[in-house]
Amino acid sequence: MPPREHRFAAVDLGASSGRVMVGHVTPDTLTLHEAHRFPNDPVRLGGTLHWNILSLYQGVLNGLKATAATTTKTPLTSIGIDTWAVDYGLLDATGALLATPVHYRDTRTTGASEKVATTLPPSDLYAATGLQHLPFNTIYQLIAAQGTPALAAAHRLLLIPDLISYWLTGEAGTELTNASTTQLIDPRTRTWSRHIADTLNIDLSLFPPLRTPGTPAGNLLPDVLAETGLPHPTPVTAVGSHDTASAVVGVPATTPRFAYIATGTWSLAGLELDAPVLTEASRLANFTNELGVDGTVRYLRNIMGLWLLQECLRTWKDTNQEHHLPTLLEAATHATPLRSVVDAGDPAFIAPGDMPDRIAAACHRTGQPAPRTPAETTRCVLDSLALAHRRAIEDATRLSGRTVDTVHIVGGGAHNALLCQLTADACGLPVVAGPAEAAALGNVLIQARTAGTISGGLPELRALLHSTQPLRQYEPTGDHSAWDRAASRLDSKKVTAAEEEPCG
Fold it and tell me: What confidence tens digit (pLDDT) does each residue in 353-405 have?
């Protein structure tokens, strides 16, 4: 008799879209199909950029309703939720949302990191939390919110995946992999850093208790069951609720000597480690130690990612110069390689706006020719991302003492053949591309293991991925020294800019 197939719903919310995926799992099989996809369009209100959280929640409900319609013969075993990091919603004592969550790309945190640094030197903050400096980290959002009526009235603070889970189940918790991005978790103890919170006057009692991937997160509420048509009881299981934590579970590696690049709006490039790297050299290299599943550490650098190209496409569309992406990528393939590159980690690219103009300005600042056409801009973006991937992997191996023989690209960028090939060329290493839906697959795998459908640690979960998912391999080609010259060119411009910067 064949093993029984179980079905699991993965709610996977990304920065540009959300989706509800259904995974079908047996000990030897793993398939995934999309039940529902919906846009994630931020809203600017009163000068502040917000997430349209109620629209997203309705998208989740619609997705679960679509799932119920396709799983009548085999009911869902459970539901898991993963989203982006750092952002949150505030609830009052009755559980009502006090304010619409603010988008991490909003400018409200301007100056917050400098304010924190006057109380807590960056080296001390890094030694305690191991988090890369990003101006929108949760601690900076909370510093920016101090004194506001919403924070003063708050009874609970829920990170975005925990907020969605709370609305579905009525049970509040703080999932650990996402909590580690707040810059309030000690990565050695995997618990809250009370020293950091007390120093910055952040009230940790706002956060509900920590929960880890694989633990119960409650059952769907009666009104949710009525809305979706799912049966009682339908449980929610905590997964790696930071989408990158789930995506790293979804890396189909066959050996431990791998690097990963989780690509999408961001590129998260790094290694999976057993312990954090909290050295001053690691801080200066701007590496982060986020917590992963099964006691792992995601040692990585945040890179601007395909946001650069997404914003270019949006700008061109808004100015009546809309371009079809496949045609643009084909033209970029024939554009002059490495003509100009920009720093894909530059905070100047974080905010929405005219990205082609900002890329051209960055080229001018570094003495390089500005792209003249959309194809040249696209090639500049992809060359720059590949170069940033190379730098991140080289720095990660140097700082951790690990070696790498394969680079795995997962997430939406796995579909971008030019980016995958350029990354292989830049790194001088083979690249394995896929799966594109790594976050949803990692989400499903943790649910399936929790339910007892499959067993084993991360190597066994990844072996199932490797044997069931379509993958494509790219071998390095071309002149590797050209990437060395491009890196030196950009580094020399950085040094010059630093030398010319006036002292305060």
Answer: 899 999 999 999 989 999 999 999 999 999 999 999 999 999 999 999 999 99
Cα distance between residue 242 and residue 126, in whole Å? 20
**Cβ burial, residue 488 (10 Å; 0-12/13-18/19+):** exposed
Whole-angstrom Cα distance, residue 460 to residue 27?
10
Cα→Cα distances 390→28, 270, 425, Å = 35, 10, 9
Helix or strand holding residue 224 (H, E): helix 222-228
DSSP structure class, residue 414? G
The token pair that represents 361 in the structure block: 């300005």
Phi, psi dihedrals of residue 445, rounded to the nearest 5°: -60, -40
Report the alpha-carbon distance of residue 490 to residue 42 in Å, rounded: 33
Q: How far is 231 from 74, CA to CA, in rounded Å?
A: 11
Neighbours of 453 (CB within 10 A): 22
Beta strands 76-82 and 6-13 are parallel
pTM comes to: 0.94
Helix axes 458-468, 438-451, angle to 10 degrees: 120
Structure tokens at 233: 């009881």
Catalytic residues: 243
Mean pLDDT over 6-13 rounds to 97
Per DSSP, the residues of 330-390 read HHHHTSPTTS----TT-GGGSSSS-HHHHHHHHHHHTT-PPP-SHHHHHHHHHHHHHHHHH
User: What is the CATH architecture of 6-243?
Assistant: 2-Layer Sandwich (3.30)
Main-chain phi, psi angles of 33, to 5 degrees: -135, 155
CA distance 135 to 89: 19
Contact present, 341 and 381 (Cβ < 8 Å): no
Helix (H) or strand (E) holding 473: strand 472-474
Where do the structural domains in the chain lie, given as residue ranges? 6-243, 307-387
CA distance 356 to 145: 32
Cα separation, 141 vs 379, in Å, equals 34
Residue spans of alpha helices (H) in 94-199: 112-119, 122-129, 138-145, 149-153, 160-169, 176-179, 194-199
As to burial, measured by CB atoms within 10 angstroms (0-12 exposed, 13-18 middle, 19+ buried), residue 31 is middle
Distance CA 234, CA 336 (A): 54
What's the pLDDT band for 499 if we cut at 50, 70, 90?
very low
Cβ neighbourhood burial of 390 (10 Å; 0-12, 13-18, 19+): buried
